[in-house]
Design brief:
8 helices
Length: about 190
């Protein structure tokens, strides 16, 4: 994993904590402007070839985050900052659901990085797992939306900064264990 991708992943994981702390010391407009700057730097650092390699849905998700950050910078809305995790889950839902209609599915793409000659039953399995992830993203978006609207900032931070990652990890781990049991010959 490149340093840029590692920083992007770390930034995504730390987003709720960064927003929570940022809003303690800075107005929402400044936090939104900082997020916009980081996203624009990420966009600029990506090579044209890498940008072309991203699926249209993935490009749309990144551009959506840039637009959302710009809106926060312009309006100063703390609510828009707290809605970002819901938007990210909806973006991921879009990417995964789009891949169901336009194969290969996202999970199949990941699987083929490890097993290029994925057997037909593997393709069927990865399609089912992609559907499970779509269900997770629906649930996660709803939970993130709920915590952004009526709940306090501490509950928003707890769910979006910890609980959602634990749920994601449980889904990853549970699927990995099931796959090892269901396909013992694969061992990946």
């Amino acid at each position: 994993m490149s340093a840029t991708r590692l920083l992007a992943a770390l930034g995504a994981c730390c987003y709720p904590l960064a927003v929570f702390l940022g809003l303690q010391y800075f107005p929402p407009r400044a936090v939104g402007a900082a997020l916009l700057l980081l996203l624009l730097l990420r966009y600029r650092r990506q090579s044209r070839a890498l940008w072309r390699d991203l699926a249209a849905a993935q490009r749309g998700a990144l551009l959506g985050m840039i637009v959302l950050s710009a809106l926060v910078a312009l309006t100063g809305s703390a609510l828009l900052l707290r809605l970002t995790p819901a938007f990210i889950s909806l973006s991921m839902l879009w990417v995964f659901a789009h891949s169901l209609r336009h194969p290969p599915t996202m999970i199949e793409r990941f699987a083929r990085q490890i097993t290029p000659d994925l057997p037909p039953e593997g393709v069927v399995y990865t399609r089912r797992v992609t559907r499970v992830w779509c269900g997770f993203f629906v649930f996660n978006a709803a939970a993130a939306l709920y915590t952004a609207l009526p709940a306090g900032q501490a509950f928003w931070l707890w769910y979006n900064g910890l609980a959602s990652y634990l749920l994601m990890g449980a889904l990853f781990g549970g699927e990995w264990l099931y796959r090892r049991w269901r396909f013992p010959e694969a061992r990946t």
